Every structure is written in structure tokens, then in C-alpha cells.
Amino acid sequence: MIYVVLYFPYLLDNVLGGLTELNELEITVLVDDRSIDEVRLKPIHGISLYIETMGHYILFDTGPNPDILRNNSESLDIDLSLLDAVVISHVHTSHTGGISFIGWIAPSTKTYIPYASGPYFEQIIMKNGLVPIEIIDWIKILPGVYISKPYYGPPWEHFLVIDSDKGLIIFSGCMHPNYKEVLWSIYEHFNKKIYAVIGGFHLINAPERFIKSIADYLSSVSTYVIPLHCSGIKFIEYMVANYPGKLIKAMAGSKIKL
User: How far is Cα 189 from Cα 242, in angstroms, rounded to an integer?
Assistant: First the structure.
């Protein structure tokens, strides 16, 4: 089970029946298309997740705008100067636009960039004082923390995977590649069950049959599903109606303990 905590508790929207604490990992949603408080935490089309695990601090994607990343992280009392690593899922602007703030507050941070990002994107990383590391295959970046091999969407996309005692926790930027191929490949790599999938599922403009297909599949292979960013309201509504025990609602300002 999971604790879902919102930074502003009077706005708590708990979708689970009972909650039990698992203290290994905490995720804070810094940037998302929706927000629990649009005055203090600015919503925007993009995603950035701050992850605390075993004394390490990771940023998964940076959102599209450095000012919003700064505003939201400071409003949530998240100190991004302590980052151990930045992971970029793919090179779309809604995932990379906050890079300059990271370079300002946490220079020299290792920044894992997608396969075949090209010299221009690598130069952007270096120009902002960060250390680019191109991912060409599976890599372990911290204890229990892995970045997947590249999967082609287009574009090339990577997935962050945390190997917890409850199972695999998979972070998705947009899920541009085939979702069944990605999840099966990750399962095969670890030979371990999937505990949670969190992030964007690229379904805002998807036909209803595809929304149903991916919701059914995610719910069959993962204990919990945490949709953000480009997953879309229709996907969330379908999950609420059909898999309420699997769904965890989250948005900018949400804190999730796994």
C-alpha cells in the first residue's frame, strides 16, 4: 500500500481505501499539467519529479520552463542544489526546458541524456554547467536506481526504474514507444513484478479504445498506476470507473511515499 500526501493537506484527494507506510522512497511532483494549488504551484504542460531514495536525490525530467521549476520547487521546500542526478527521459521541450535552473542551482550535476540526442542538446547541457552522460544501454546510476536502454517512439525514450522490495517502480516521461514492449522488456530485465508505473502515458488525444487498452494492460501488470502530464482526463476517468484500487491521483504538489 501507499501513502499519498499533498503539500496542502486541505486539498487532499485520497483515492485509496486504506494506507500503510512504505518508507523507502518519496516522490514529489514538481511540474505537471495540473496542480493542487494553481496560485502557489503553477501548472503547465510538462513533467518533473523529485525522487528521494536511500539518501539520494534524483530529478526525473525538468518540465518546460525554468521559472516554473524554480517557483514550484521553492514553494514545496525542495532544495534542488542537493541533486545527485538528473535524468532526461526524451528531448521534447516539455521535459527539458527547466535545464537552465538546474545548471544555476546545482552545477556539475550528472545529467543522463537520451540516446542519439545529438551534439546540440549535449551542448545545451554543458553550456548550463551540467555534466552530460548519454545513455546507450541499461545503466545503474545509484543503489537500486537504473535507467533503461533506449526505446524508439519516436523519439528515443528512456525509463527510470527503481528496484524496491515491493517490486519495480517505473517512471515514464511520455511512453512514446509501444507500452507493452517497454513494460515487458523491463520486467524481463529484472525478472521482478511491477509495483507502480508513474508519469505520462501519451493519451490526451488518443481514441477511447486505445485509452481502454493501455489502462487495462497497466492495471493487469502493475499494482498501482499514477498518471501524470500527457495521460489525460479520459484515462483517469476510465481508471476511476474500472480500477479505483489501482489508481493513485497526483499532480503538481503531490507527495507519494512508496
Answer: 30
CA pair distance 237, 94, nearest whole angstrom: 24
Over the stretch 34-76, which tens digit does the pLDDT of each residue have? 999 999 999 999 999 999 999 999 999 999 999 999 999 999 9
Q: Alpha-carbon distance 13 to 7, whole Å?
A: 12
Q: Which amino acid is at 37?
A: D
pLDDT tens digit string along 149-161?
999 989 999 999 9
Residue 250 CA to residue 137 CA, distance in Å, equals 30
Q: Where are the beta strands (DSSP E) in 45-193?
A: 48-53, 56-60, 85-87, 110-113, 131-134, 139-142, 145-147, 151-152, 156-157, 160-164, 167-172
Catalogue all structural domains in the chain, each as residue range(s) with its CATH number: 3-9+20-257 (3.60.15.10)
Q: Which residues contact 74 (CB under 8 A, 6 or more apart)?
A: none
Cell reading at 67: 521559472
